[in-house]
């Protein structure tokens, strides 16, 4: 099975047409149409009516299309009813706090997939942990249903729930992000997120630092709120050309060693053994998967703008 890649998820309020019309040109791996925090309560009903058309519009550039729903049970059913149509890649579920929430979400999606002739399980779920209670239940959340494919920490809301201001180095998020990454790796789902804030979209240097700290903890992508942040996420969450070149050398050296009867060889004064070989193999696998994502987006844009 090919490695799944989602380095960037660009979040737009679905009721802001000027953003939606250009979303497919922004180069993000995924676009999340927001029905939650960026849509005022009085506007939510109207925003739901825009979702189906927006799915096809923002997907025109080959990005995955998500919808960020409200986790309030009184709003969730109508959000899912508005969102689950052909062309939807996944549901972005915020403020996840229990496996029971994911169980209900799964049932709602499943019913709409059947009703609308969509393949069972075709709509994935990405859960965001944004409270200490959610963090305590993160393991059971990750285990609840097969369609849950990624999990991350929402920095702004998590800081709010702690009663602290987001800091420049994001250290108040270190425990939560580390916990979620560990759970994701154990459950074999993708870990997303930053060690820092996404709100200061003009501070691109600070955003890059937050993304880099997240990657060093094991995250594989993150959300963002401005198109200028997308290239930064792609840079941070893609293997560098130098690392790809070195990975090829490591694999070649290891294979030559195996042919000679040893699984531990010297390369540039450093030992190359099975773990080093496996890391190199994963770097190449990720680089190939990223190339496939970029081809998918380029081909989609070429069809839209021949």
Topology:
Blueprint: E1 8-13, H1 17-22, E2 30-34, H2 44-58, E3 64-68, H3 73-83, E4 90-93, H4 99-115, E5 124-129, H5 132-136, H6 138-143, E6 148-153, H7 155-162, H8 174-187, E7 190-192, H9 204-217, E8 222-224, H10 230-236, H11 241-259, E9 265-267, E10 270-272, H12 274-304
Parallel strand pairs: 1-2, 1-8, 2-3, 3-4, 4-5, 5-6, 6-7
Antiparallel strand pairs: 9-10
How does this structure look, described?
- There is one protein chain.
- The longest helix has 31 residues, at 274-304.
- This protein is globular.
- It folds into two domains: 8-236, Phosphoenolpyruvate-binding domains (TIM Barrel); 241-304, no CATH class.
- A hairpin with a 2-residue loop joins β9 and β10 (270-272).
- The chain has helices at 17-22, 44-58, 73-83, 99-115, 132-136, 138-143, 155-162, 174-187, 204-217, 230-236, 241-259, 274-304; strands spanning 8-13, 30-34, 64-68, 90-93, 124-129, 148-153, 190-192, 222-224, 265-267, 270-272.
- With 306 residues, it is α/β, with parallel strands linked by helices.
Which descriptors apply to this entry?
alpha/beta; 2 domains; 8-stranded parallel beta sheet; 50% helix; globular
